[in-house]
Structures are given as C-alpha cells and as structure tokens.
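Fold this sequence, please.
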Amino acid sequence: MVFTDREGIRNVIQAKRYSVDNPVGVSAVQEVFSCMRYYKAKKAVVIATAKFTEPWETLAGVNHVKLLDRSDLINIIEAYKKDDIKAVKDRIEAEPRMILESWSEATSVALHEIKKDYKAERYVQKVMGK
C-alpha cells in the first residue's frame, strides 16, 4: 500500500499475515524495498503478525526498512481502539532501526579499502574542462 504521512511524504507499507510460530523470511523486506524505489517513496514499512528472524532484521536495518512485529501491531490496535490516532501514526511513522554496515562489511578488511575510480575521475575532469 502507498500512503502519505502527516508531513506529506510518500511511504510504502506491506502487511504479512503469518501464524505466531512462523516467522516471515527476508523476501518481505526485498519486496517492500523494491516497491519503495518503484513508487519513489521515502520510507518503507513491513507490518507482520509474527516475529522477525535475525536475517530479516539485519536486511531491514541495512536498507532502512521499518519493521513492526506482532507486539507493535497489538499496540497499534489498542491505541486505535482508544481513538489515539496520534499514537498509531507515531508508531508507524517512526524512523526505522538502521544498521549502517552489514556483517560482512564490518568484518572484511578488504571492503574498508577505498579504491579510486580513475575512469570516473578522468571523465569528471574532462567534463569540468581540467
């Protein structure tokens, strides 16, 4: 679903209905992230009736996808029943947990080396007339 938040920013949200003992896989994050790019949205959210697997949380954190699990969904429903729409919006629109580096990036020395793209550098110099 595509929606506009209180600040007028376009967001995408995907709901996953799974049994409590059946965690959702990483495909939900991949799908909602792709939708975010396709619809030119600023944020992506996944709401699930189950808990998240660790790989799912990692992928979401690296891609800045907001995850709302079963307990979040219960809190949203309770706030909605109390007619506390602001609390509902606050929870849904909150910033995602962000992971700035994936595990492989954090542990690999080779990936931390910055290599110049000489071809791109020459092209920029040519365009700039230098």
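The chain has seven helices and four strands. Confidence is low (pLDDT under 50) at residues 110-116.
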